[in-house]
From TrEMBL:
CDD domains reported for this sequence: NTP_transferase_like_1 (cd06422)
Nucleotidyl transferase domain residues: 1-229
InterPro entries: GlmU-like (IPR050065), NTP_transferase_dom (IPR005835), Nucleotide-diphossugar_trans (IPR029044)
One Pfam family from the record: NTP_transferase
Keyword field contains Ion transport: no
Superkingdom: Bacteria
Keywords from the named record: Nucleotidyltransferase, Transferase
The name this protein goes by in its record: Nucleotidyltransferase family protein
SUPFAM superfamilies: Nucleotide-diphospho-sugar transferases
Length: 231
């Protein structure tokens, strides 16, 4: 599942005329960076949700899918946010568990392929969600306070108020369809699912071994490109 339906408000004015996944970073659209990583990891079938300027995303995918089988989850009538988007797309996704990647993601692999490494950590007997996290100190351009704490077994808990959490969510995760059970109707955040999984002890994390960039604003694009160019 590739999440590509957001409005990209923080990326304005670049998103005034194009959706955020088509904003270019380091010479190509953000979504193309993701598609390249998916192909390298051996992914063959993807579901992509669309809402904002959906025709642009669909046309780009038709031209740039490069061997990937693409199915569109259409949210033109209502933007469903991350959680609602997963629920709507679930009938189109035939694998369980399945990979979910934000289309505005930019990462560089460490010693191993990031997506394959994440998959190697999956354990259906213990998990409903497995989130790829990056240490706060290595979250390039990230201005937030972090998202999660992780115990020795890999179980996650939320950041405590007025504290910095040691790990940041990268926008990459593996989830089971069991995570989506008893979902609210309409638009809602994946946080609803994560909070329940955390309470049940079934939300885990794996640490990204490479580089990851928070590319959410025009300024962050400049910073990311400078980092990639200069090392």
């Amino acid at each position: 599942m590739v999440m590509a339906a957001g409005l990209g408000k923080r990326m304005r004015p670049l998103t005034a005329t194009r959706p955020k996944p088509l904003v270019e970073v380091a010479g190509k659209p953000l979504i193309d960076h993701v598609l390249d990583r998916l192909r390298t990891a051996g992914v063959e079938n993807i579901v992509v949700n669309v809402h904002y300027l959906p025709g642009s995303v669909e046309a780009h995918l038709a031209a740039k899918a490069g061997g990937l089988n693409v199915t569109i989850s259409d949210e033109r009538e209502q933007l469903l946010e991350t959680g609602g988007g997963l629920v709507k797309a679930a009938p189109l996704i035939h694998d369980d568990p399945f990979l979910v990647v934000n289309s505005d993601n930019l990462w560089i692999d460490g010693p191993a392929d990031t997506l394959k490494l994440l998959a190697s950590h999956w354990d259906s007997s213990r998990m409903d969600a497995l989130l790829l996290l990056v240490p706060h100190a290595r979250a390039q351009n990230h201005r937030g306070l972090g998202d999660f704490h992780m115990d020795r077994a890999g179980r996650l808990r939320r950041r405590e108020k007025a504290r910095i959490a040691p790990f940041v969510f990268t926008g990459i995760q593996i989830v089971s369809k069991a995570l989506l059970r008893d979902a609210p109707e309409g638009a809602f955040s994946t946080n609803v699912f994560w909070d329940r999984a955390i309470e049940e002890g079934r939300c885990f994390g794996a640490v990204h071994q490479g580089l990851w960039f928070d590319v959410g604003t025009p300024k962050s694009i400049v910073e990311t490109e400078a980092f990639l160019q200069n090392g």
